[in-house]
Each structure stands twice: as structure tokens, then as C-alpha cells.
Amino acid sequence: MNSTDPHVSIIILNWNGWEDTLECLESLYAIDYENYNVIVVDNGSQDDSVEKIRDYCSGNLETESPFFRYNPLNKPINLIEFDKDDVDEEEISSKVSAESLNLYLLKNDKNHGFADGNNIGIDFALNNLTTDYLMLLNNDTTVDKDLIGPLLKTTESDPKIGLVGPKIYSYDRPSEIQTVGFSIKWSRGEIVSIGHTELDEGQYDKITNVDCVSGCLMLIKKELILEMGKFLDHEYFLYYEDMDSCVRTRKLGYEIYVVPNSKIWHKTSSTSKKAAQTAGYYTSRNVFIFMKKYSQKNQYRLFLVYFFIYKLWYSIGLNTVYYRDLKAFIPILRGTKEGLAWKK
């Protein structure tokens, strides 16, 4: 690949997760594509993430993975550090190295959530770098060497393809599919993962038009983002923001595809009680926001029946039994209440 190929800006959001981020970076710097840059947005981490990223770039901190062997030969990596509100385009240009790999580290003053954290990275790329595509990539992923080429081949084939995603596998079970896109069941307010937990036996090897792709990795045409404005809706903070972006993409007349020749492996970590309560609150709240924004009236009515007869009680029971805590249902009820009260 060379500079005539489309340029891709890859945005990785880090929040107190430097070990995952370094493994992701090491896999990225081994891909078979040259015309890209990497932007790590640190979302106000309270651990020593920033210092660990510095150590990694200097070559003083190795990272391990079952998917690759650490490469000391591409270190040091030129680290270009900025605070979110102290970005200067001329200063950025002066710090870019033509002799080594570059990593942009954008430091947020607080945790802006998944949506705005990524939006800050997108704005940085659009305002300060020359790029054709934006890629959002979760930090708890490891990527295949042939990551970008198949994605670009699909997007470049049709101007109406606005965004694409890869085949996503489980990190712990590398042959098990995590998702090859999503379909939306509007009458239930459910986002159904295609291929979830299936062993990959070639059953999803065709490039496929889907309702949504996972926010674990989205490759997005710059023109789509410019037309859309903010790509991710900060109203959600966590969960459903990637699905919201996919719905808005389709409403603008663009198509969404999964490209199975592009592959990543995504970690599914054990969930703490506190993290589960946070997820319970945001998922129960945000499904109402999502449905109120996009479903038809009859679909919303059916969703309400399904939610209050089955889904709510299933979620409460699952959290209460799994965590053996009678208070585990409180965040779910609070999210449900706030979701019901939300208005466009």
C-alpha cells in the first residue's frame, strides 16, 4: 500500500484500560496497510494509562498477546500529546515524524462517555489531519493483519456504502463468532446479534447488507460524518449510540455492510456488580430513547407490552439472582423511569 490509497484515521478510546489499549495498538502497528494514523483519546483515566502509553511508545514496556509476538523493531513510536482544549494544527504538523510510526494522544479532562469521547477524536481528525475515512475501534480488541484492505475495497465500490464493519470473534474463543452485524426487531426494541456464539464454519463469509454493525469497529466515510454532524449522539453516554448512528446512516440513504474478510477479536470480560448496575441503568433507559426516536407508533406500543410483561422482569430477575443482591434491580427501574420520561 502507498500514499495514493485512502487515508484512514483510527480512533481508540481509553478509560483506565491501558493494558487492553497497548495490546490493541501493537496489533494495529502490524497491519498490512500503510496510509493510516492512530489517535488514542484518553477519557480522563484515573489510573496510570497515560504514563503506560508513554512507556510503550518509548519501547520500555512490552505487551503480550496470544495473537501476535511483540515487535521491538518498530519502537520508539513518535508520541504526539495534546490536551483536548490545547490543540494547535501547526504544532501538530511540526511534531509528526517521517522516520517512525506516530501516535496521537488526546487527553480529555474527564470521562465524556463512549459517544462524546469518540466524537472528540473524530473532531480532532477532521480538523487537524487529512483523512478520507474514520475508524472507531474499541481498545479491548486485537486486529487481523489484513484489517483495512477488505473494508476499503467494499466502501470504495459504491458511493452509497456509508459505513462497514468486520467479522468479530470472541477473544477467549478465537473461532467463535461474536457478531457479523445486527438486525433490529422493532416490535421488541431488541438489537439481535447475527451469528452470536456460533463456531465459524464459513456460514457468514459473504459481504452482507445489515441493519447495524458493532461499535467495536466501524469504518466510516468522511462524507457521511460531515453530512450527519456529530456521529455519535451524546444523549446515550453508554449503549445504543452505535445503533443510533447506524439508523441515522440509513435515513440519509447510505447502506451498511459487514465485510467478513476483515477480522477482529473482542474481549468479553467478567462484569463486576458496579459495572452491571451501570449497564442495567443505561440499557433500560436508552432503549426507550432509541425507540422514541425511531420506531413507528404501533411498534412502540408493541415494545411497551413486551418490555413490561417480559423484558423488565427478566432483567431484574437475572441481575438479582446472579449478583445475589436484592438492590440490583434499582438501577434498572431508575433507567426505565427516566427513559419513559424522556422526550424528543
TrEMBL record:
Residues 9-58 form the Glycosyltransferase 2-like domain. It comes from the Archaea. The chain crosses the membrane at residues 300-316. Pfam families: Glyco_tranf_2_3, Glycos_transf_2. Keywords: Glycosyltransferase, Membrane, Transferase, Transmembrane, Transmembrane helix. GO terms for molecular function: glycosyltransferase activity. Belongs to the glycosyltransferase 2 family. This is Glycosyltransferase family 2 protein.
